[in-house]
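Cross-posted from the bioinformatics board.
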Amino acid sequence: QVQLVESGGGVVQPGGSLKLSCVASGFVFNDYGMHWVRQAPGKGLEWVAFIRYDGSSKYYADSVKGQFTISRDNSKNTVSLQMNSLRPDDTAMYYCAKDSIRLLDWLLPDSWGQGTLVTVSS
Amino acid sequence: DVVMTQTPLSLSVTPGQPASISCKSSRSLLHSDGKTSLSWFLQRPGQSPQLLIYDAFNRFSGVPHRFSGSGSGTDFTLKISRVEAEDVGVYYCMQNIEFPPTFGGGTRVEIK
């Protein structure tokens, strides 16, 4: 079955950087787009970024555009999120998720990892 | 961005009784292919979200039949025919008709 395992979270000072990774298994990784979605403590879900199955297109929420970079390595079944200039309001659980339809930008995350927690604090 | 509005904010339900959650979108979610780009997720306490319903009324793999989705255009409903203890959590609707995908604010369901 689909398995997504995130890593790389932790405590970082404001202005710092962090790179999250998500290793996928149980499906043909290079056939599916991948998402990052975050959830601030006690708050709702906020979509963050999406990368097409082949990496040729990337989309970002306005709140992170120019600050975060999504990438993927299809040879390693891995999607990453490089986060720079972190602010306290970036504190959240970050989930990676698989898109639902192969070879299309369907924008529906149908399987989610357990998340990795990012805390931005001095 | 498409704004998704859920009501109520919270719901307390007796086991075995039905429950209903409403979701309204700020624009039509009818896709050019005839499908409706509205989905429902459940986030149980301490867990990651899981997909329940996609394309407004299709149950995702493994989702019990007591969950059903309905609606069209801008108005949608998730119904649980008979609530069970494991249905506790926060329910979110989400639109995937355009970037950025957006979520409703969530509806918390608890058991009486």
